Amino acid sequence: MLTKRIIPCLDVKDGKTVKGVNFVNLRDAGDPVELGTLYSSQGADELVFLDITATIEKRKTLVDLVKRIAQHINIPFTIGGGIGTVEDVSACLNAGADKVSINSAAVKHPDCIDQMAKAFGSQCIVVAVDTRNVKGVDTVHTHGGSKPTDILTFDWVKEVESRGAGEILLTSMDHDGTKAGFANELTSTLSTRLTIPVIASGGAGTMEHFVDVFTKGNADAALAASIFHFKEIGIPELKHYLDKSGILVRQPV
After folding, report:
1. Catalytic-role residue among 51, 88, 130, 220
2. What phi and psi values does residue 20 have, to the nearest 5 degrees?
């Protein structure tokens, strides 16, 4: 049985880690490389760095940030934000990233998933899916969650899998930053329909929420931001709690 992964997420804007609620009202949470280094030492399994303004501002993810991260962190990390071509992926992987996360570009040009998976292997390609429930229907949103589409979330994740993505990073915009718990029903539905791992994101507020997303949500990994950034929950304490709750996790050394 595979261990469940705990993944701190660092949303980066203008070189700083930020965090908001429902994708808005951002506040400064510190230097991303310093935070990433801390989480690595505390036993995080992986890290995700997302330049949340890259797509909106038509910028490419800064390769020098990837290099800085790679120099200080010895666990796998994913970089995302404004990545849309095979050349973008190559630049990030060559700078030291283990995986890349694509979102808006994948929705706009789905065949880029095929191209990236063919060039670098599915294990390097994470497709981030920002979803919101609109009038009872789960639909995909792009551009940092600011642009709704008419694409059904369930249909999209199946297509993404068929095109060669190695992992889904599923963020419930309705739960993001609320600390009221993950979207367990949605996560479970996707996890049982897919053969690739699903990372649940959005809503972590207590250690019980992590137990729920692994047991009720059937998630392969759980991603969180503010509870770690603002020291509301420590990673070692969380992993100890999960272990005591019967969740198989890699314990901090």
Report:
1. 130
2. -135, -160
